[in-house]
Structure formats: C-alpha cells, structure tokens
Amino acid sequence: MIPEHILNRKGARSLKDINPEVISYLNKGLIETRNLMEWLATDQLTLLKLVLKQLDKADWYTDFEIAVNAQKKPTANSTTKVIGETLGILTTNTETYTVLKTHTSDMVRCWSCWAESTHHDTTIDLLKTMKPYAADSHFGVREVVIFSSKERMIEDLDTSISILSEWTRDTDENIRRYAVEALRPVGVWTKKIAAFQDNPEKGLPLIAPLKNDTSKYVRDSVGNWLNDASKSQPEWVQNVCNTWEKESTTKETAYIIKKGLRTINK
Predict the structure, then answer these.
(1) What's the number of CA atoms in the CB half-sphere (13 Å) around residue 154?
(2) What is the spatial distance between Cα 50 and Cα 104, in angstroms, rounded to a whole number?
C-alpha cells in the first residue's frame, strides 16, 4: 500500500524540495511522477534494474548501462531515449511491451514508447502503435510520444496529415491534441517542419476541425500551431483567424484566435 501522503502529494517546485521517500517510490516504479522535478529526480538506471529483474532479463542491464554512460552530454530526456532505443534493439516481444506500456511508472512507459517507435518502417504502422501512448493518462508519456514520432512523420508528411486528420474526430482529447501538437510547425524541443513554415495551408486539415474544440488542452495546441505559423507566414495566419471569426462566434474559437495571434499582436 502506498501511503496517503505520497499519493496525495503536490509536485515539488525544486529538486531539493522533493521528499526522499517520494524518490524512493519513484525509483522502485511504484508511483508516477507528478511534475518535471520528480521526473528529473528519478534514477532511471536504478529503476531499470528493478524492471529488468521483474521481466527476468537482468542480464540485459550491462547493455543499457554501457549505452547510457556512452552519452557525451547526458540529460534526463536523452537517457530516456537511449534506454528506450536500446530496449527496442534487444526485444520485439509483444508480451514484454504489454507489461511495459501498462506499468505503473510513467518513466517505464516512456521507455516502451521509444522502443516500440523503432520497430516500424511505415508511417501507418508507426502511428497505429503510437496511438495508445498518445492517449496515455500521464503528461510525460504524451510528450515523449511526440519526440519519438515527429521526425519520422515529417519524412512522410502527406501520409501523416491524412492519418492525423482522422484523429481530430476522436472522442479522446489526448488523441485530438496529439494530432495537432505532434506536427506543430515549430513546436518545443522538436524539429521544425519547413513545409509548414513555407506553406502552412497544408496543415489546415489538422487544425480547422478543432477550431471549436471543447477541450482547453486541444485549443492550446491549435492556438500554438497558428502562432508557430505566424512567425513565417503572418498574413496567412491573420486570414485564417479572420475567416474563423466570421464562421464561429463561440468563446472557444475566440480563445484560439487570441492565442494564435499573440505574436502578430505584440
């Protein structure tokens, strides 16, 4: 049983403020991280050693340790990627991934996401596999799935747009948000999409269906998508927002327009 004070905690604002007891539970994979500080505080190799033991694959640990320690400038993000990609090399066993993608620890699910992203040659297969991760209940996994799939989608942009435009009708707000956020023209810590910077109209199938979305999570992504595009094609973004304003008088659309024009209106 996890104590109530651990389950009901608020995420610490700095690493030094994290309760050592919380770190212990994180390193054992018994709880999810509450915020970025807890995510950074998790000792991924310590957690990995326990997970491999649970999988009866303790002999794999050396491969991971070598890969992690070979990094020239390791970060929490890069270590997550290295562990995930190493896992992807070591196994394609579906039973193993069933365990990992449903693990209590969001960090373990992030490794699983990176690993499974390496197993597919086509955009269709990649996105089919990534969809459950895009719907994950944890914010960290939902960000990692973008990191692990965006560059591959850029290489096959038309197919990606076609698939994700269908996802804009999904009942799960996390899936709808991924459809927009994963292909933002600029995004955060991800590769820019030159095709959208030059011709953002290509991305309309991803954002237009969501101009009235009921979810703030989705609306933020649509607004940010437009704001990204405004940095290279401000006139186009202004025209889209003018059109949407005429087509829809809802507060949801107004929110997106304000967010999308924030750079233009500075």
Answers:
(1) 21
(2) 13
